[in-house]
Amino acid sequence: MNKREILTAFEAFCRDHEFELNPDRAHISAVIDGILENEKRFGSKYCPCRIRTGDFARDLELLCPCNFTVQKKYAEEGECWCGLFVRKGRKLKNG
């Protein structure tokens, strides 16, 4: 997948859910660049802000998009680990 295809897939992933892509397009671009770099280096689209363990089974939890809606960070701050996905209607820290 290329950058545009991933963005399109993430937009579709957000439909009919309580979350959306971060409105900061530069942030989205940087995160997708990180995902693509991880795919190039490690063979899978791992979240760029989480550290792989080297244990394939455990690292599957780090594939983007991860199961972020069950994480404490999402519950408390309304965003996934890297801020790619945010709860709809959430106020941005810098906005």
How would you summarize what this structure contains?
This protein has 95 residues and is mostly helical. Helix content is 42%, strand content 6%. The chain has helices at residues 3-14, 25-42, 56-59, 72-77; strands spanning 19-21, 85-87.
Q: How large is the share of residues in beta strands?
A: 5-15%
Which CATH-level-2 architecture?
Alpha-Beta Complex
- What is the topology, as strand order, of the major beta sheet? 1-2
Quote the average pLDDT: 92
Instruction: Please report the number of helical segments.
Output: 4
Q: What's the main sheet like?
A: 2 strands, antiparallel
Element-level helix/strand string: HEHHHE
What does this structure look like?
This protein has 95 residues and is mainly alpha-helical. 42% of the residues lie in helices and 6% in strands. The protein has 4 helices and 2 strands; from the N terminus they run αβαααβ. It has a two-stranded antiparallel sheet. The longest helix has 18 residues, at 25-42. The mean pLDDT is 92.
Considering the chains and any ligands shown, give keywords for the structure.
two-stranded antiparallel ribbon, 95 residues, globular, Ferredoxin Thioredoxin Reductase, mainly alpha
Blueprint of the fold:
Elements: H1 3-14, E1 19-21, H2 25-42, H3 56-59, H4 72-77, E2 85-87
Antiparallel strand pairs: 1-2
